[in-house]
Amino acid sequence: MVKLSVIVPFHNVQAYAPDTLASLRANARPDVEFVLVDDCSTDDTPHLLQEAADTLPGAVYLRHEVNRGLATARNTGLDAARGEWLTFLDGDDWLAPGHYDRLLAAAESLRCDFLRTDHVQCHGARRTVQRVPHGLRNTVLRPRDAILPADRPTCVDYPYAWAGVYHRRLLDAGLLHFTDGLRTAEDRPWIWRLHRAAASFAVVGLLGVFYRRGTPTSLTQIGDARQLDFLRAFDQVVEETARDPEADRLLPKAVRTYCAIIAHHLDHSDRYEPPVRRRLRAESAAALRRLPRGELTRALAAMDQARAARLRRLRRRPALTAAAR
Q1: If you average pLDDT over every residue of the chain, what do you get?
Q2: For residues 238 and 167, what is the distance between their CA atoms, to the nearest angstrom?
Q3: 260 phi/psi in degrees, rounded to 5
Q4: How large is the angle between the packed helices 247-267 and 305-316, nearest 10 degrees?
Q5: Could you tell me which residues come within 8 angstroms of residue 145 by beta carbon, excluding any fewer than 6 positions away?
Q6: pLDDT for the residue 55
Q7: Phi and psi of 96, rounded to 5°?
Q8: How far is the C-alpha of 78 from the C-alpha of 168, rounded, in Å?
Q9: Residue 216 has pLDDT above 80, yes or no
Q10: What is each CA distance from 76 to 64, 101, 180, 271, in whole angstroms?
Q11: Across 116-130, 179-193, 194-208, 213-227, least confident range
Q12: How many CA atoms lie within 13 Å of 29's alpha carbon, on the beta-carbon side?
């Protein structure tokens, strides 16, 4: 029986994949499978994965013939996974030896729908511990209770899919797949849906995932139109939360987070190519006009004055035709 399936998408990460694959080898055990998904890499990544498929215990190698993005690559892995538990890793990150032994032991002990873990963020030689923004550890909780409060970071602001492990019943219930085609912020609708719909979760203080930041292949470093998928991702968060039976409680958090993310992208708009920068402003203005007026007013009132004023001005700008953008 496969106890754990580890889904690992790769795309043009030949410089980092050897470290990732070596860390998987240091976590191999007879009841763990590694689902390696190549998202149509054009460098030497496919060769490295083919070698791993031949030598890494438990490896399953799948390949997309066209590039489809991280969300769809994870879905391909989910569709192939056979494990009782499932987790993720990105193709440029790595694991501490024995991490999955400890993760599975915690999952078997707590017996809830999913666990969330801390991680180590790596930027060059710098290492920073990132904690799940929830103080209660090793205790089974109701996931939707960890969405609020609206005015502080909570578990839905810690969306990293690889920072945890998820029972197969969540996959069978349709809660683990990502929105196909999202190129960025794909984990935001995913984490919100998980916390709204799952029955139980826990936070554990395991530090076994090393998250590499600032790599040239990371979408956070790229200023093209793929970055704008955050708008579609947060539209989905707001729309789905608005249909929740507790929308009155939860929607303020969704709207407030959306406004903060729009402001963040506008603050860093110099990294975008000029046509994408224009689209960012136009599509952000349209997104603000779509938000419930009362919730938007309250969200802007809670922001710092300069950013709130900028979003208010943006919302009032005339809508542009597609040709004018």
Answers
A1: 94
A2: 26
A3: -65, -40
A4: 90
A5: none
A6: 96
A7: -75, 145
A8: 10
A9: no
A10: 9, 25, 10, 31
A11: 213-227
A12: 17
Which residues, including other chains, have CB under 8 Å from residue 254's CB and lie 6 or more apart? 192, 234, 237, 238, 241
- Nearest Cα to 119, choosing from 157, 87, 163? 163
Reported as a single tens digit per residue, the pLDDT across 134-152 is: 999 999 999 999 999 999 9
Task: Give the residues across from 121 on adjacent strands.
Answer: 128, 211
Residues present in the chain in total: 325
Q: Does the pTM of the predicted model rise above 0.85?
A: yes
Q: What would the mean pLDDT of 287-305 be, rounded to a whole number?
A: 96
Q: Classify each residue of 261-298 as buried b or exposed e, where b means 16 or more C-beta atoms within 10 Å of its C-beta.
A: bbbebbeebeebeeebbebbbbbbbbbbeebbeebbee
Pairing of β 119-123 and β 209-212: parallel
Which residue type does 7 have? I
The pLDDT of residue 219 is 53
Cβ atoms 107, 165 nearer than 8 A:
yes
Residue type, 176: L
Where do we find the tokens 């085609």? 181
pLDDT at position 224: 79
Given the structure tokens 């060059």, which residue do they identify?
A: 124
DSSP one-letter code for 242: H
pLDDT attached to residue 217: 56
Helix/strand/coil for 127: strand
Q: Which amino acid is at 56?
A: L
Task: Estimate to the nearest angstrom the gap between the alpha carbon of 214 and the chain centroid.
Answer: 16
The whole-angstrom separation of Cα 251 and Cα 23 is 40
Task: For residues 218 and 164, give the distance between their C-alpha atoms in angstroms, rounded to a whole number.
Answer: 21
